[in-house]
Amino acid sequence: MRVLMVTPEATPFAQTGGLGEVLSALPVELAALGVEVDVLMPKYRGINPDNFNITKSNVSIEVTLNAKNVKAGLWEHVGKNGARYGFLECDDYYDRDYLYGTPETGDYEDNAERFVFLTRAALELALQEGRHYDVFHSHDWQAALTAVYLRTLYAGEPLLRNSAAVMTIHNLGYQGIFWHLDMPLVGVGWEFFTPKHMEFHGKLNFLKSGLVFADLINTVSPGYRNEILTSEFGFGLEGILQEKKDRLSGILNGVDYSLWNPQTDLYAAQSYSAEDLTGKSVCKDELQRLAGLQLNPHKPLIAVVSRLSSQKGVDIVAEAFDSIVGNDIQLIVLGTGELQYHHIFNDLVVKYPGQVSAFLKYDYSMAHKIFAGSDMILIPSRYEPCGLNQLYALKYGAVPIVTATGGLTDTVDEFDVDPETGTGFKFFPPNAIALERAVLKAIRVYRDQPEVWKRLMIRGMNKDYSWNRSAREYLALYEKAVSERLTSIE
Fold first, then answer.
1. What is the pLDDT of residues 229-264, one digit of tens each?
2. How far is Cα 131 from Cα 157, in angstroms, rounded to an integer?
3. Which of the chain's termini has less CB crowding within 10 Å, N or C?
């Protein structure tokens, strides 16, 4: 089995969210199962030989976009188990400070052109190298046109004829919607600009286009798979998803436990495990010091590690905090995002000195310290395709408090003292009242039943959400896609 994954990001090279971490771990696990995996992504400004073990190849790719010739080079990196990463070098498109846009001005105006080029280049690269891929696997809207091109512009290429197209939705809220006059840039005929294909309320929708042309579609948890079939979570695409629901599956994301494990975490002040939790208190003490919080091992320390956006429900935390704060808790926030939320949490730091701390940036090492030192991780997302933070939290014994939605409800079992079961606390709907009730319930157990709390932590730490399980499901998905593709062209 040979697979080419097309993606806008992959950790550690470039990342804005969970997609990057998936593209770090999944290719490696698939390669361990014997799959030949190549990954193609843009070579952004931060991906340079000084920081990463990448080498320039002799490959040169040229694509004509709306009568303009665009050229790119290719850099390569070979990862664990032989997974190969390719980086498309085109400075006009990718040599920028940010991946998709700036905080001040929003999305780059030429994002359509940037990612048309990425997807066209993926197919040109396969042809140039004479490499047959059994599956082209597209991740999110930026890579969605790969499936379109396989069945339109490149449909006559013998090398690509048998290739299956698989599309993964990491977050349906981001679709890549552009004005209709970008159709000539895409390069397929106007006959495809219809509600049945690529048109979406008079505009061009990249993600919808990929869903229409893909052989199989999956998203990143079974719960989210079911939610996106509804008008509440379908973002206008529930119709096409309902039409293809027999080709839509949910495969839960996994965790790379070589990176996220309190027994081996080099960022943690002291290692610990489900068998010996001693080091957890040392990590909490260090975290309180770093965050400028009152040093008190008995105060419940709650953390939010998140992109600061409405989807992530951080406004709900701010709304509920004045009611919760009287219960003598501490709050740490780590993340960056919309400026209004930066202001809100900065104001809470001023209002509650020694009780609230905010690191308004992306800080990988601090994230590890927060999971290691916190008592609870609060995840109040309005919707969550899968979520990784609750999986990290479980492993680190930081009990998750989550909205009962998508992958969060798939992976966190509600605590029940009698019989003693569960791994965390859930609430719904995503509003301040429900969140406050869940937090207060968790605090009561933490304070009043320390031995019950300890067993709750240990149950979570013993859960296995490793990528090996997920990779086997993806391999089965590929095999199904290839089989159905071959059957369809016989």
1. 999 999 999 999 999 999 999 999 999 899 999 999
2. 12
3. C
